[in-house]
Design goal:
Helix content: 25-40%
Oligomer: single chain
Number of helices: 12
Structural class: alpha+beta
Number of strands: 19
Shape: globular
Radius of gyration: 25 Å
Strand order of the largest sheet: 11-12-8-7-1-2-3-6-4-19
Largest sheet: 10 strands, mixed
Mean pLDDT: 96
Number of domains: 2
Length: 455
């Protein structure tokens, strides 16, 4: 058993800093690089790509990234774990294999976790009275079955651990819990018992801190953000894990950013719901039990984490087609920029009504005034505002209404309030609305599979 391992976050979402993984494997010692690419909406995007091309459906940044970091990771014996396989992890693994072969790398094992994609099994589940009820409304998935774009089970750390046990140096998964990417190396290296729920919770908390990349090292920091050093070269977090469940959150010394109790605390409360019941496939972690201690420069100890037994369910993340939307913008200038923008909005809404167009929702924002805070925005002195951007969005099931809305923005330039600019890029076009359907499924109904791709 190792005395400690260092697990580095390389991506917090698909589109994160491209240099982060390279910096993590070159600027200091790490044992594992974990990269989280997936969000709920990402799965539907990837599913659409796969339908157009059966070889796609994964984070296409990965092959190019592997060209840069794979030789380094092989030389330093750094294992890579990522959920960037999306809805086509096997295709992603095959692309990584091609990269390895082009670089002359041999004797490499790529573990692929399959089985999370249940889109083609919905009818089977419904026939067995597994309704995949919406966790918010209680409605059966049968209501939107024909509109489904994606449906994926959140597997946890266990299949990743199984792949590592089979000798995989790279593990590529589909929809895995963000925390499982980090927990898996601890279970594998330290031989943790899945029934030791405090250890499962400790690894889960570490994964939660790492999952959003630099958000725990000073990025998007709500505290004294102006004091964060060198954000242009911000370092991504590293979890220094020990067999007893103690975790040190840190980063490479020669990078920007900050690791403090405050930066770690902000990430801890990100997207957790009930802090006493953070549910994962391995355990239920009690975030109120967590203790933090600053034990050095850019080093925060996380300890005393308590956990409870896991549930009998996996979470399912499904998405479905829910109509169309379009967004249009115009910029109004001083004087009385806000008054002009409000008048333009009123005129536009009257015209849409006179045309008899049908929308589920019309939403207006005035950028520079209330786009962030909505009705809580403070009143402002118009004489102090140089410009305001009018942003109007519509959503609905009727494509023709959405399309016609896009034709009503440009006419406001010559048939509305004066001092207007900012119309470019052509008229707004309808785009599909993807809605989210969260559900639960008994763990007994789905099983992950491991496939090893050898180079």
């Amino acid at each position: 058993m190792k005395e400690k391992i260092r697990i580095a976050s390389g991506q917090g979402f698909w589109g994160d800093l491209l240099e982060a993984p390279y910096q993590q494997v070159t600027k200091g010692h790490i044992d594992y690089l974990v990269m989280d690419y997936l969000a709920e909406v990402t799965m539907s995007i990837l599913q659409k790509q796969k339908k157009k091309d059966s070889n796609l459906g994964y984070a296409r940044d990965i092959p190019d990234l592997m060209k840069r970091i794979l030789p380094i990771c092989v030389e330093k014996n750094i294992k890579i774990i990522t959920n960037g396989g999306g809805v086509n992890p096997l295709s992603c693994a095959n692309e990584v294999k091609k990269v390895a072969e082009s670089l002359g790398i041999k004797n490499l094992k790529i573990g692929v976790v399959l089985g999370d994609d249940i889109l083609d099994k919905i009818d089977e589940f419904l026939s067995k009275e597994i309704d995949l009820k919406n966790m918010e409304t209680g409605e059966s998935v049968s209501k939107i079955k024909d509109k489904l774009l994606s449906a994926n089970v959140y597997f946890g750390s266990e299949p990743i651990v199984d792949a590592l046990k089979q000798g995989a140096q790279i593990v590529i998964t589909g929809r895995t819990t963000d925390t499982g990417l980090t927990l898996a190396p601890m279970i594998f290296e330290f031989g943790w018992d899945y029934k030791n729920y405090d250890l499962m919770a400790a690894g889960t908390v570490a994964g939660h801190i790492l999952e959003c990349g630099a958000q725990s090292t000073g990025g998007n920091f709500l505290g004294d953000w102006e004091s964060i050093p060198n954000m242009a070269e911000i370092g991504f977090p590293i979890a220094e894990a020990y067999p007893d469940g103690e975790i040190i959150i840190t980063k490479h010394e020669n990078t920007g950013g900050l690791v403090s109790i405050e930066t770690v605390s902000e990430q801890l409360v990100y997207e957790i719901g009930d802090p006493t019941n953070y549910i994962t496939p391995e355990c239920i972690a009690d975030f109120t039990s967590i203790k933090l201690e600053q034990v050095g420069k850019d080093r925060v100890k996380v300890y005393n984490v308590k956990g409870k037994p896991e549930t009998k369910f996996y979470k399912v993340s499904a998405s479905y087609f829910d109509g169309y939307s379009a967004v249009g913008t115009l910029t109004y200038s001083w004087p009385k920029a806000l008054t002009k923008a409000k008048a333009a909005d009123k005129i536009l809404r009257q015209r849409l009504e006179l045309l008899g167009l049908k929308f589920d929702e019309i939403r207006t924002e005035f950028l520079g005034y209330n786009a962030c805070h909505g009705p809580l925005a403070k009143e402002i002195d118009e004489d102090l505002i140089n410009e305001v951007v009018l942003r109007v969005a519509v959503r609905g099931k009727d494509y023709k209404s959405i399309e016609r809305f896009g034709r009503e923005i440009a006419p406001l330039i010559l048939t509305g309030p004066p001092g207007v600019t900012g119309f470019s890029g052509g008229r707004p076009k309808p785009s599909e609305v993807v809605a989210y359907w969260p559900a639960l499924i008994p763990k007994s109904m789905v099983k992950p599979q491991i496939q090893i791709v050898e180079v």
